Amino acid sequence: MPKQTLTRGDLVGLRAEGQFVLGSGFFNEVHVVEDEVVVKVAKPYGPLQQPLSWLRQNRKEHEASARHLRVPATYHVRMNRRDDRPVSVILQTRLRGRLLSQVPDNELYQPPLRAELVRTIRAIEHFGRHIGWLPDVIGGPPRWGMHDLRRSNNLFVTDEGQIWLIDPGALFLWFSRRNPIGMIYTSVLLWSGRRMLRRKPVR
Ligand SMILES: Nc1ncnc2c1ncn2[C@@H]1O[C@H](COP(=O)(O)OP(=O)(O)O)[C@@H](O)[C@H]1O
Ligand SMILES: [Mg+2]
Fold this sequence. Notes:
Number of domains: 2
Structural class: alpha+beta
Oligomer: single chain
Number of helices: 5
Distance between the termini: 51 Å
Bound molecules: adenosine-5'-diphosphate, magnesium ion
């Protein structure tokens, strides 16, 4: 399958000079435009990779998540490539910092950041209990550690010490409490969060 990359001109009306690839997650190829905006294009894993329904669902998940957690300002955009094939694109404010999984314990459990961590985990707990599903608070790629919030690649710790959820879109089988798999998985995730809350602050 050819690698999908954005070129100037693919993005109608968006100035893409100076764009570079920031990183490549499991589902998205993430580009930076003008140093401030990230552009996420879903990678092609199959013929049905970008139906409009996916974009609508993803927007709902962003909106629901933003009511409880910090989620960067995000625009869901449907546009055409030069060859007229439709493409779904997510534009998002670029944050500066590291993935939660990359922050060492001695920083994460220090007081100001620890307080932010506690707030975030409580908000996730509240979300899971009252809304009935969780946004993807873990993130890919599929790996050992996906049961453990501490290893999250979707929670992002900024240089100012705020924790943001950068990629809420959830696979409903896993993150919904309406089926047995989802119920078990969300419980394990919430349990791993509570375990983090019990860790003593580092002083
Ligand atoms: N808003 C953002 N600000 C800064 N970096 C980001 C942002 N969104 C994504 N990234 C970077 O791109 C990577 C992949 O993004 P993500 O949206 O999680 O896609 P995937 O679904 O492929 O994991 C992240 O791990 C992170 O390093
Ligand atoms: Mg991710």
